[in-house]
Amino acid sequence: MAKAAGGTVHVGKAAAIIVVGLVLAVIVLRTDGSGGDVPVSAGTGVEISVTTTTQRRSAVSTATTVALRDPATVKVIAINGTKTAGQGGKATTKLQDASYNAIAPGNATAAVRATNPASVIYVVTAGYEREAAAVAALFGLPPTAVRALPTPSPSSDIKGDVNIAVLIGSGVTL
Predict the structure, then answer these.
(1) First vs last Cα of the chain: how many Å apart?
(2) What pLDDT shows up at residue 60?
(3) pLDDT at 20
(4) Is residue 147 classed as helix, strand or coil in its secondary structure?
(5) Which of 31, 39, 104, 128 is paired with 147 by a 20 to 30 Å CA distance?
């Protein structure tokens, strides 16, 4: 063993440094990141309790709610897809009563009427999906009834200046 300048061996100091080093190593290795107490035994009958604090950042999401367009600015056409005359007119009245800019009703093509279609709300103008969902609710339809306008169109009465088309078929409340 090496001797200090005075000729004495400092075994006690060396042992204390080794024990402290081991304790610190155990503390670092046993910390689980939870921020709680981690009890550590130094092996000499001394128990040390160390409290660690871990700060975690969480992402904060901010949702912005945009109001629906004023119904008076939403141009809607009701398309009769049933074999019963007047259903488009009834739907148009319902839309007007809810303050929508409902234009004269139209009729579905003969091919569409022959299939006895379920009621559907078509988004004619991109960006009107939320307004179409509101129209669906007005007619007692679920949000899944809202769809993009297919090609070919279910009616020649659906023109380019229309925002939403309501195909009156089964399952609608008039």
Answers:
(1) 101
(2) 66
(3) 73
(4) strand
(5) 104
